[in-house]
């Protein structure tokens, strides 16, 4: 056991091992017997809930070197410390109550602990896919991101240094989403390459990098943001495109609620802009956000990380509709949303499958 602790090979998904680690490292009392529960679904991390005797609950999170996906995909476990840095800073920059408080981190075992979100809570992606779309959640989703971008822009001098390293964003976002897609889809190659160059050249705000409904828990109708391992100082338009992709892809997939999700996408962007407030780069940001949305929408049907809920037919439809924007795209998000919905609706009429 002592050796486990020293050599960085501790497996927190083994309750007995985690308990002894917490005791030996003095994080909990020497005889304390917490309730330990492995949380499901982690692909790149192990996450374990620890309910302490004093009523406190922590989530311990440990980064895996090899991601649990079909193809070999590796990323340094050091990224958990980027997440820890993210938690500490975001707690100051994001609206009160939207970030889980930090508890501790361990640089030898590459793990961190944060406060657990209280029960009952639900994952926002699960709620959305079940059709539970609520305007107040959408508004908060916009406020949360707008607030992070606004406040990190105001502290640019300091934060551009603290979060200067973009290596995890490069290996976990730029390569698998953008460069891989550019290689797979020749019609979009130049479009994506140009966007990648611009993205690398923009250092405007903190960028969460994984701003997705999957990383939002809803507790008492309040949104809480998780999973900050690719946070860096960069191009805020990426977060807008990455997140809008989820609302628009659901608008495509959930036919009955297509207009509701389109309205939600508009409401989200309005709420974001209100929270961001005045910045000299807003017009350019919106135009780049249109292109990030197109690139992410394509990446989710042709990149290394495909949306799992799409049928083969939906994948083809989304790919073709997005490609129709490559040579000429609107300059604003509302225009993109309207045109995307229209083209998705018309696609089957124009491409008869008999
Ligand atoms: N602080 C927390 N409180 C409650 N549940 C959490 C917390 N952190 C993570 N989880 C649960 O673990 C899941 C995976 O956590 P996440 O940080 O998104 O890791 P991954 O990088 O593996 O996606 C979340 O979707 C959530 O269900
Ligand atoms: Mg996650």
From TrEMBL:
InterPro entries according to UniProt: Aminoglycoside_PTrfase, Kinase-like_dom_sf
All copies of domain Aminoglycoside phosphotransferase, residue ranges: 36-263
Keyword ATP-binding in annotation: yes
Keywords noted in UniProt: ATP-binding, Kinase, Nucleotide-binding, Transferase
Pfam families: APH
SUPFAM superfamilies noted in UniProt: Protein kinase-like (PK-like)
Homology family: Belongs to the methylthioribose kinase family.
Name of the protein in its database record: Aminoglycoside phosphotransferase
Natural source organism: Dictyobacter formicarum
């Amino acid at each position: 056991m002592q050796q486990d602790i020293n050599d960085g090979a501790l497996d927190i998904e083994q309750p007995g091992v985690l308990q002894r680690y917490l005791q030996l490292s003095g994080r909990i009392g020497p005889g304390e017997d917490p309730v330990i529960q492995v949380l499901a679904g982690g692909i790149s991390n192990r996450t374990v809930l620890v309910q302490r005797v004093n009523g406190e609950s922590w989530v311990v999170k440990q980064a895996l070197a090899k991601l649990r996906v079909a193809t070999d995909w590796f990323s340094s476990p050091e990224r958990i410390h980027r997440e820890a840095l993210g938690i500490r800073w975001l707690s100051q920059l994001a609206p009160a109550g939207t970030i889980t408080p930090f508890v501790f981190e361990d640089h030898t075992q590459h793990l961190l602990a944060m406060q657990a979100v209280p029960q009952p809570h639900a994952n926002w992606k699960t709620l959305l896919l079940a059709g539970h779309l609520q305007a107040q959640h959408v508004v908060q989703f916009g406020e949360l991101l707008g607030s992070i971008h606004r406040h990190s822009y105001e502290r640019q001098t300091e934060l551009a240094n603290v979060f200067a390293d973009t290596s995890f964003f490069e290996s976990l976002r730029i390569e698998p989403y953008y460069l891989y897609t550019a290689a797979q889809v020749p019609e979009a190659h130049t479009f994506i390459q140009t966007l990648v160059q611009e993205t690398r050249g923009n250092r405007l705000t903190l960028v969460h990098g994984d701003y997705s409904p999957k990383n939002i828990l809803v507790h008492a109708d309040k949104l809480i943001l998780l999973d900050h391992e690719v946070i860096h100082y960069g191009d805020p338009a990426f977060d807008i495109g990455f997140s809008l992709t989820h609302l628009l892809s659901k608008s495509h997939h959930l036919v009955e609620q297509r207009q509701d999700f389109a309205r939600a996408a508009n409401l989200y962007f309005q709420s974001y802009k209100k929270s961001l407030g005045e910045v000299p780069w807003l017009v350019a940001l919106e135009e780049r956000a249109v292109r990030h949305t197109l690139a992410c929408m394509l990446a989710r049907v042709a990149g290394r990380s495909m949306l799992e809920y799409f049928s083969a037919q939906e994948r083809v439809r989304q790919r073709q509709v997005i490609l129709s924007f490559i040579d000429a795209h609107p300059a604003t998000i509302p225009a993109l949303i309207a045109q995307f919905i229209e083209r998705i609706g018309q696609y089957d009429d124009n491409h008869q499958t008999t």
